[in-house]
Write a structure and sequence with these properties.
single chain, 70 residues, mainly beta, 4-stranded antiparallel beta sheet, 3-stranded antiparallel beta sheet, globular
């Protein structure tokens, strides 16, 4: 997903990582490891909200921090 300003995008893959990227250069800006495969990912430049298959909702940040919301 692209951030609302279009300057970054966020990806999630089979390697259990959520990554923030610079859309212009393709350079990785940060990442955080998640615990399960996400169902839904919503992102901004400063955080991603991730719904996991087990029903938990997490907020993750490019600096690698994450907190459980539900």
């Amino acid at each position: 997903r692209y951030t609302p300003d279009g300057k970054q995008f966020v990806t999630s893959g089979d390697d259990d990582r959520i990554r923030w990227w610079d859309a212009a250069t393709g350079r990785r800006l940060g990442q955080v490891r998640h615990l399960a495969e996400p169902v839904l990912l919503s992102a901004t430049a400063t955080e991603a909200t991730v719904l996991l298959y087990d029903g938990t909702l997490w907020q993750a940040r490019p600096d690698g921090s994450a907190r459980k919301l539900l």
